[in-house]
């Protein structure tokens, strides 16, 4: 016997909701990739570049939405155990699987087709983003059910977005202009910034997991919501957050010294950003569980805007004496 009420049939609005267009703001993670590539390659800003920027952003938004569609549909049975996610359209309405898979296919195909218009490197990056959605959500992989791997496989989308932004501005291979005739390896983003971006995203995601675990408040219910939560504790999540933050800082330091020493001035502000985010993550019913709630932290969002502005300035302003200091510091 069950007193569960029949669910209403999903409407067009519900199918749009499971694509999570409100989460497209996460694709702002592409912007640092664009800026870093611009500072290195000095890509001329013209109509062709503007076309690539617009088409590239739309492409990644559609591919990300394809991942969200399959995520919400396959997670509906688990999200009912989450205090907030149980209100999602995929949980409270009867979703037609045929329409879901059609929606997924349409979003994926259009997203990849647009990616092809940017470049083959950008297409490869968009395809990897789509593939990681399968790894994260679909059996037999379903990495979201595996302890720690759930955080790492979800946060890898951040460096993928960084690379997507980078490849919009990096030179196209085989272009007739000799100044773009670079070896393909030189057009790839530095490994150090990719790992730093990944670990930074892992810190954010682990903090979100910590907040979710505390919000649910019951280890058994948490395990029903997500299998990986059967193995997590508050302590293990806190330790992992510390590990991701330290690793991010280490590889960010390598990148700064090798590629853009001016960004060294951002380090104290970078540390404050992580510390402030951690403080918010430790709150009861923490806003880090969803970007729409994080926007309510107005001072934090203002700081984030100012911090981003500082990074933009440091990316394009040379400080000669800092290079001299670094060079001569090796003599002591």
TrEMBL record:
The chain crosses the membrane at residues 24-43, 49-70, 91-116, 122-138, 188-206, 236-257, 263-280, 300-322. It holds the Pfam family UbiA. Keywords: Cell membrane, Membrane, Transmembrane, Transmembrane helix. Its main location: membrane. It is a multi-pass membrane protein. It is found in: Membrane. This is Prenyltransferase. It comes from Pedobacter gandavensis.
């Amino acid at each position: 016997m069950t007193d569960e009420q029949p669910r209403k049939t999903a409407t067009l609005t519900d199918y749009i909701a499971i694509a999570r267009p409100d989460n497209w703001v996460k694709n702002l993670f592409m912007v640092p990739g664009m800026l870093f590539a611009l500072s290195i390659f000095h890509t001329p800003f013209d109509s062709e570049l503007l076309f690539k920027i617009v088409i590239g952003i739309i492409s990644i938004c559609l591919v990300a939405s394809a991942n969200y569609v399959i995520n919400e549909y396959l997670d509906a049975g688990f999200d009912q155990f989450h205090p907030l996610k149980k209100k999602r359209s995929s949980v409270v309405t009867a979703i037609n699987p045929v329409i879901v898979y059609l929606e997924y296919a349409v979003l994926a195909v259009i997203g990849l087709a647009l990616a092809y218009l940017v470049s083959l490197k950008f297409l490869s990056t968009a395809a990897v983003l789509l593939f990681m959605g399968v790894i994260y959500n679909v059996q037999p992989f379903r990495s979201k059910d595996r302890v720690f791997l759930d955080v790492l496989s979800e946060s890898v989308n951040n460096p993928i977005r960084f690379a997507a932004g980078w490849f919009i501005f990096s030179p196209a291979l085989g272009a007739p202009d000799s100044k773009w005739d670079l070896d393909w390896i030189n057009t790839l983003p530095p490994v150090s910034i990719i790992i730093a971006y990944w670990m930074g995203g892992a810190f954010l995601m682990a903090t979100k997991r910590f907040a979710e675990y505390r919000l649910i408040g019951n280890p058994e219910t948490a395990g029903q919501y997500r299998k990986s939560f059967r193995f997590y504790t508050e302590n293990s999540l806190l330790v992992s957050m510390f590990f991701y933050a330290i690793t991010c800082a280490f590889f960010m330091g390598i990148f700064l010294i090798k590629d853009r020493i001016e960004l060294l001035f951002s380090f104290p502000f970078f540390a404050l950003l992580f510390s402030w985010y951690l403080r918010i993550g430790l709150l009861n019913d923490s806003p880090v569980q969803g970007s729409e709630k994080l926007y309510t932290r107005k001072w934090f969002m203002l700081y984030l805007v100012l911090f981003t502005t500082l990074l933009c300035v440091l990316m394009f302003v040379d400080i000669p004496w800092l290079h001299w200091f670094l060079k001569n510091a090796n003599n002591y």
